[in-house]
Amino acid sequence: MEAFQYKGNELFCEDVPVARLAEEFGTPLWVYSQAKFLSEFNAIRDAFAALDPVICYSVKSNSNISLLKLLGDAGSSFDVVSGGELFRVQQAGAETSKVIFAGVGKTDAEIRYGLEADILMFNVESEPELDAISAVAKSMGKVARVALRLNPDIDAKTHSKTTTGKKGNKFGMDIERHNALAAKVLKDDHLELRGIHMHLGSPILTTEPYEEAAKKALEVVTELRKQGHQTNWVNLGGGFGLSYRGSEAPPASEYAKVILPYIQEAKCRLALEPGRSICGNAGVLLGRVIFTKREGGKRFIIQDAAMNDLVRPAMYGSFHKIWPVKPTVAAPSDFEAAEIPGCEPADVVGPICESGDTFATGRALPPVERGDLLATFSAGAYGTVMSSNYNSRPRGAEVLVDGNKARLIRKRETLEDLIAAERV
Ligand SMILES: Cc1ncc(COP(=O)(O)O)c(C=O)c1O
To answer: Which residues of the sequence carry a binding annotation for pyridoxal 5'-phosphate (predicted)?
Structure first.
């Protein structure tokens, strides 16, 4: 489904004109579509239904507790990478018994927190971490359920900063270490090996890496069982593609097609940790044009949404569609076209004192004026969660739309919020 559509030359989120939300809540403003969140979650659940998977929405991609509650109520579980994320899951009122705790550097306090919450399992990334989990579990008189994170050395052909399953990345362990640690678990009364974990990177726009990973998982599980393990979980992580540009990401059913046969053959439960593919296209970032200017032969559109709100373009050089909320030119099918009738190239920038504070360079855009609204699309994932107060800019508000209703799910920060934790 399309959550954001132009109707009568004005952008709507579901049945709500987003300009109305900007009037009511100000800018920068994050606008989310409830229906889009749910339809993407349901698409994954339905695609993998034959295996009744545990879908652990990756909290890191967008952790607003109203969104966690929405997904929890729809049957999602959660993948967390910190005590803070586990706290959010609890605050959302979600069950923790199906939570998976991932991450390369869990502290003892976080391990203890996970054990107290009786989570489904920890994804373990190194021997020192395994030892720490065992020690904390022993001190609590508990048995920690773990999966070992294998680095399968698969090239997921994604951005170098978001590739995680290649040899040389900081994540996981190679097969030799995996097997050695599996043997160690067998001898430890405070550890139980639940399964194998892999996460290859993000976003992955082809299905082949998942097929390779699922095949690898089958091999490893077969071997582990020969060694005497009761291993019955395969967790293939997240990373499903998101269509930032058009429809470049395969649907969930395509990933399912290549993964299912191997997991069925392994007779394992399947866990997945999707984030971006659920929330990415469920959100836009609205900014208001502060000034336009022409300098050095270029047109600049300076808006009040900036890299402190959405850092992805500055951090990864990522592409986001950008178009006015009430355009004088209809939105094109190709937002990257060098020439669009009625448009002129422009750099879309924010007010932050960094040249990197640029959302788009030389982008064909219609005329805009001071006060106009711009929408930056596909901003629902890795947007708010990576936002900061750089340049002492309060973070924007977040609004969730359901049909013709909209509700504030995070208030705009105030100047007082900026200094609330500081002491003089
Ligand atoms: C271990 C792990 N699982 C899941 C995810 C979620 O990935 P995505 O949001 O691309 O689905 C990530 C992303 O960094 C991750 O590192």
So the answer is: 239, 273-276, 382
